[in-house]
Amino acid sequence: MSLTSAQPALLVLADGTTYTGWSFGAPGTVIGEVVFNTGMTGYQEVLTDPSYCGQIVTFTYPELGNTGVNPDDEESAFPHVRGAIARNICHRPSNWRSTQSLPDYLKQHNIPGIYGIDTRALTRKIRTVGAMNGAISTEILDPGELRNLVEQAPSMSGLNLVKEVTTPEAYEWLEPTETAWEFSDSACRDEQPRYTVVALDFGVKRNILRRLASYGCRVIVVPSHTSPEEILKYNPDGIFLSNGPGDPSAVTEGINTTKALVKADKPVFGICMGHQILGLSLGAETFKLKFGHRGLNQPAGLAQQQVEITSQNHGFAIDPDTIAEDVQITHLNLNDRTVAGLKHKTLPLFSVQYHPEASPGPHDADYLFERFVQAMQHQKEQN
Ligand SMILES: NC(=O)CC[C@H](N)C(=O)O
Fold it and tell me: Which of the residues 190, 199, 238, 352 could staple to 216 if both were Cys, CB 3.0 to 4.6 A apart?
């Protein structure tokens, strides 16, 4: 497709800011929270991460689609973003793993995209004003009309989107990271399943399941509405709380289930939404960040200690002033000093606001899977 055959498209933000561009992917109209991701790689993993459900993602990397898409880089069964925004698009990918172009892939999954946008200006706007709703359309090219639609859309605050992405039925996951891609030489890595982990699915990414399997876990992924009694019937060695979309404080069922599970004396590990849900279940509160953290180079750590460069994707965070006495902050986001990790002082419960599984991103935090396995081993030895 050449530029001249591209169809016009419009992007309108809730504050009335309007950008004109060209359509890629599917035609149509979508409304969602407009956020930006600063990763230089990994657009396919971002598009298919269920945590982005309900959002329109602006990629600050200036050209998307150069390496196409392939079946192995899917983080779930299909893309979950509402729409995609790019500076420029590559229509003819070149990569040995590519099986399809990005525009064709989005078209196939009925996801609209807009390109030709000044994504630097858009990102500065979101950073200054804060993340807000917006719409992409190839049909409604009148900015006022499109803005009226945006104004009717719900805000991300208070939105429970977990029910849209959680698995309808429990399933078992045993597949580790492929040998060719394995990077860890940890002594705890063991592809023989030695621990049973129940993963509460708020919108889990596949690479989390792969990393758990690479560390010797047989993972039973269960729907987010599964009761604590049903979860404990699997006799798990540990409980995993997954990432997921929307406002964590609206996921009351998940919070109540976690409140019951933390009393079961089993190691609990939470990632991103799982971290927020663990915090909420231990009495803390969450709040919405101005524009969130979405990218692959977010520094996390505590002063005087080692810094991890982490992959992040979240719009909410735990309020440090609401953390109970028996819970400790283990990591801060070193850009804005928001809470990035928690641990219970006496129980084997810990969580991080970032993505140790990467996909995309660096592997600095992979040791957290090892820590989870060690906690399960320790608990086994105690019992
Ligand atoms: N990646 C995630 O789990 C995101 C958690 C939550 N939806 C947030 O935006 O903060």
Answer: 190
> Does 272 participate in catalysis according to the annotation?
yes
Please give the ipTM for the structure prediction. 0.98
Q: What are 60-118's pLDDT values in tens digits?
A: 999 999 999 999 999 999 999 999 999 999 989 999 999 999 999 999 999 999 999 99
The secondary structure of the chain, three-state, reads CCHHHCCEEEEEECCCCEEEEEEEECCCEEEEEEEEECCCCCHHHHHHCHHHCCEEEEECCCEECCCCECHHHCCCCCCCCCEEEECEECCCCCCCCCCECHHHHHHHCCCEEEECCCHHHHHHHHHHHCCEEEEEECCCCCHHHHHHHHHHCCCCCCCECHHHHCCCCCEEECCCCCHHHCCCCCCCCCCCCCEEEEEEECCCCHHHHHHHHHCCEEEEEEECCCCHHHHHHCCCCEEEECCCCECHHHCHHHHHHHHHHHHHCCCEEEECHHHHHHHHHCCCCEEEEEEEEEEEEEEEECCCCCCEEEEEEEEEEECHHHCCCCEEEEEEECCCCCEEEEEECCCCEEEECCCCCCCCCCCHHHHHHHHHHHHHHHHHHHC
Atom 8 in ligand 1: residue holding the nearest Cα: 314
To test the pocket of ligand 1, the residue of 162, 288, 316, 319 to mutate (highest count of ligand atoms within 8 Å of its CB) is 316
Q: Report the pocket of ligand 1 as residue ranges, CB < 6 Å.
A: 51, 243-246, 248, 272-273, 313-316
- For atom 7 of ligand 1, the residue with the nearest CA is 245
Q: 131 CA to middle of ligand 1, Å?
A: 14
Give me the amino acid identity at 281.
S
**Residue 53 catalytic?**
no
